[in-house]
TrEMBL record:
PANTHER family in UniProt: AB HYDROLASE-1 DOMAIN-CONTAINING PROTEIN-RELATED (PTHR37017), ESTERASE_LIPASE_THIOESTERASE DOMAIN-CONTAINING PROTEIN (PTHR37017:SF11)
Protein name: Pimeloyl-ACP methyl ester carboxylesterase
Pfam short name (any one): Abhydrolase_6
Originating organism: Ancylobacter rudongensis
Coiled coil regions, renumbered to chain: none
Gene3D superfamilies in the record: alpha/beta hydrolase
Residue ranges annotated for the AB hydrolase-1 domain, each copy included: 43-259
Signal peptide coordinates: 1-31
UniProt keyword annotations, A-Z: Signal
InterPro entries: AB_hydrolase_1, AB_hydrolase_fold, Sec-Metab_Biosynth_Hydrolase
């Protein structure tokens, strides 16, 4: 059939008129991209034996200044189960994915409590990280610390609670803190039930969740080589802070906060 110019022009005009109406419907679909990863902003800090959550103050200040939402757990140290429950109670209150951080005995706590659904990752700060069926007392005996080799360093009450000899606390726990501050902490100890150190774990969150580890280079409470063993076994990136004592989170808060922030940003894609 011969071409009819007027009919062709009419068809073209109709298409041109229809196209602007169709484009707004099509463009959003074409411009869609994958949603950005939600930032991980919640951090929960878990202290170790014989101390309390106030020791995290300097680390807390660094993290809050950088926009993170930070909560400290005050575990009672009356039993391992009680301390895990206290940590889970705080995790329940978080409003989204959370980075769980533990110091010393707090590492055992976060290893078990870290199975909580809101926990996205773990940071171990001069900490224990036992596996299922293990306990930190038995593991500590395989690589004894200066503490373990010091007679009379750990004392026990008649009802089975332990504490670090106050006269030895500054030298063993916090030699890189001002003496007055270390002496105050020695007199403000939270006595810990002896059983907390020998309770076998029933879960090990580091087996399934990303982990990071900090080795305190001059730790007298936990052998630094044991810390390194834990972190290597967990496949965790390791940061060693040379010369740092067991109180590394107090004496080197900026370096500790930097590791925590790096972990949080890795997991959550940064802060808004």
């Amino acid at each position: 059939m011969p071409c009819r110019p007027r009919a062709a022009l009419a068809l073209a005009s109709a298409l041109c008129l229809a196209l602007p109406l169709a484009l707004p419907l099509a463009l959003p679909a074409m411009a869609q991209t994958a949603p950005a990863a939600a930032p991980l902003r919640n951090i929960v800090l878990v202290h170790g034996a014989w101390v309390d959550g106030s020791g995290w103050k300097a680390v807390y200040d660094h993290l809050v200044a950088d926009g993170f939402h930070v909560t400290m757990v005050q575990e009672p140290e009356t039993s391992f189960a009680d301390d895990v429950a206290a940590t889970k109670r705080v995790l329940d209150l978080q409003d989204g994915p959370t980075l769980l951080v533990g110091h010393s005995y707090g590492g055992s706590i976060i290893t078990e409590a870290g199975m909580h659904a809101k926990v996205a990752g773990l940071v171990y700060v001069a900490a224990h990280a036992p596996d299922v069926g293990e306990d930190e007392a038995a593991l500590g005996a395989t690589m004894p610390s200066v503490l373990a080799k010091t007679p009379g360093a750990v004392e026990k009450t008649a009802d089975g609670y332990t504490y670090l000899n106050p006269a030895l606390f500054p030298r063993l726990f916090a030699p890189d803190l001002p003496v007055a501050r270390a002496t105050f902490e020695a007199r403000a100890q939270v006595l810990a039930a002896a059983s907390v150190f020998s309770t076998p774990l029933t879960a090990a969150a580091w087996q399934s969740k990303p982990s990071w580890g900090i080795v305190a280079g001059d730790d007298q409470i936990i052998n630094p080589e044991l810390e390194r063993f834990y972190y290597e076994r967990a496949g965790a990136p390791i940061t060693t802070i040379p010369g740092a004592s067991h109180s590394v989170y107090e004496s080197h808060p900026r370096e500790v906060a930097a590791v925590i922030e790096r972990a949080a940003r890795t997991l959550g894609g940064g802060l808004n």
